[in-house]
Amino acid sequence: YNAKESRNSWKRYEKKMNLKAKEKLLLENDLRIALELDQFYLAYQPLVDLEHEHLVGAEALLRWSHPERGEISPADFIPLCEENGFILPLGEWVLRQACMQMKMWQDQGFPPIVMSVNLSIRQFRQHDLSERIGNVLKETGLEPQWLELEITESIMADVAFATSMLEKLKKIGVRISIDDFGTGYSSLYYLKRFPIDKLKIDRSFVNDVLTDRNDAAIVSGISAMARNLNLKVTAEGVESAGQAAFLKEQKCQEAQGYYYSRPVPADRFEALFEAERNKAVRGAASS
Ligand code: C2E
Ligand code: MG
Ligand code: MG
Ligand code: MG
């Protein structure tokens, strides 16, 4: 045992942690003004019906273009927002923005598709969430059936609260999907108990579906189960034609992933609508 070395490594650790804490504080300050300064925007990724390759939906994904740091990934700031509560105003901004955009697209005559918005657990726990969502729908004029809320399995931690909240949300008429399905609680109990519409198979299962027999079994199993429970199913993270073909074979209904398109800003998403007329959604937003 080397006391000096241990002391040094502790110092290094402390230094690193200090930096981390400072970094966090800086980011928190920046977050506060980012909303006012209009530094956030939404990117939209298409959801495609596998059988007919129709465009059926868009997922709204939050983006932050920081003046000095450039684009910051949501994975790097959403956890912080959840921790400090900023996700509440930010999440509501996302919801309003996404509903407004979809209503605008509808008014422009684009074919109707569903807009998916991610809800954080902290948003879900707000007692007045359904009223808030109802208000946003009213303000933006979007009909509820075109809004889908993506929640994660973590909401199942409080079954009683989750059940009553989901029922309130269903009453409004919005759709509910379980995001990153298979990575969380994994209790099948709530699948029959909760009023949900869709499972989104996490991309960690889809990644190696062609080479890993276990992943293939999991994906086809979830597809079959969802079908029998009358739930829709979307495979996330589809990156190749081979994966898409496999999923189609498994009668998985919908797919989302780089194979069709990366998440793109609103104006580029409109190219996907245009391509839809020529049945060529894949790749349309990149040109
Ligand atoms: P998510 O809801 O599961 O969204 C899908 C993520 O997978 C997105 O990452 C998307 O860009 C990425 N993705 C899509 N297709 C592919 C693919 O083929 N390959 C690979 N490798 N990745 C793919 P993104 O945009 O970085 O978002 C990460 C996570 O941040 C989201 O995961 C979601 O949990 C969270 N997030 C994003 N926007 C919001 C938001 O407005 N509110 C909340 N609460 N969370 C958000
Ligand atoms: Mg999602
Ligand atoms: Mg998610
Ligand atoms: Mg996901």
Automatic annotation (TrEMBL):
User: Which residues are the signal sequence here?
Assistant: none
Q: Which UniProt keywords apply?
A: Membrane, Transmembrane, Transmembrane helix
Q: Which domain of life is it from?
A: Bacteria
Transmembrane helix as UniProt keyword: yes
The EAL domain extends over: 24-277
**What is the recorded name of this protein?**
Bifunctional diguanylate cyclase/phosphodiesterase
Q: Which organism is it from?
A: Cohnella suwonensis
